[in-house]
Amino acid sequence: MDAETQQAPASRAAGTERQQVTGVVTSAKMQKTIVVRVTRTVQHRLYRRVQRRIKKYYAHDEHQQARPGDTVRIELARPLSRLKRWRLVEVVSRATGYQGE
Questions:
Q1: What is the pLDDT along the chain (101 residues), one digit of tens a residue?
Q2: Domains recognised in the chain with CATH numbers
Q3: Pairwise CA distance, residues 101 & 62, whole Å
Q4: Among 1, 18, 26, 72, fewest CB within 10 Å belongs to which?
């Protein structure tokens, strides 16, 4: 093999980005686990009215840096527990006076 064909092994194959979503932390009461509420908008198939769809994800927060009300970005990961399949990537913005549901 010549120098042009040799490459350092990548952590992931090229072009296989993990799915990422952005949402709001609703709970951080568990150890190293946060609950993230992700809201997306979809159009109704028949009536064409815009609807909000909300889904709740459990994400792994290794350093316990997220707080309720923070906007965070999470990415898909291997199963970490019965419910956790996501990992915290970054805290996008901090909460200011979060009022829980």
A1: 555 555 555 566 776 789 999 999 999 999 999 999 999 999 999 999 999 999 999 999 999 999 999 999 999 999 999 999 999 999 999 988 766 66
A2: 20-93 (2.40.50.140)
A3: 25
A4: 1
What are the backbone dihedrals phi and psi of residue 71, each rounded to the nearest 5 degrees, phi first?
-90, 125
Q: Which of 71, 93, 75, 73 is nearest to 84 (CA)?
A: 75
DSSP assignment of 51-87 equals: EEEEEEEEEE-TT----TT-EEEEEE-S--SSS--EE
Q: For residues 72 and 86, what is the distance between their CA atoms, to the nearest angstrom?
A: 12
The span from the CA of 21 to the CA of 86, in Å, is 10
Give the pLDDT score at 9. 53
